[in-house]
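Deliverable D4.2, example record:
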Amino acid sequence: MTREELDFIGAMNMCDEISNEAYRKITIHFEEQEPCEDCVSREAVFDWLCEGCERYHWNGDNVCLTKCEDYRTIAKLPPVQPKQDWIPVTERLPEEGINPITQDYYEYQCTIYLNEVYDLRFLRFGKGHWWNGGWLADDYVIAWMERPEPYKENKE
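Output generated by the structure prediction step:
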């Protein structure tokens, strides 16, 4: 859970729906995280929320069976993705791999510098080189981003 989500809870006056104790536990835990860790898993938040709750029941899997109002309210918050940062090619290059669908190298969002202009392009990386179609683009790529996880439908 990010600070954005915690601010969202406060801004939407959802604190009325989430008990003060639950909000306090979430906030304290968030403040204890290292500054570079922006996200905390919902499962971890649910564990802290349910810890010591009289409505929390042991079923062999340490799962909250009652799904109290606090639990349901947090579950309704929109998902967040951690902010992605640019990785300079001087620091490291992506791991090589073949996309099982296209049978080609994986594509990455890149910052290129060409003719004194910075621009964004999607380029493939393979055999230790950046490719734009059949052309080598190594001399122009200055940074790239990790590929995000693909979207998966929530089928609950």
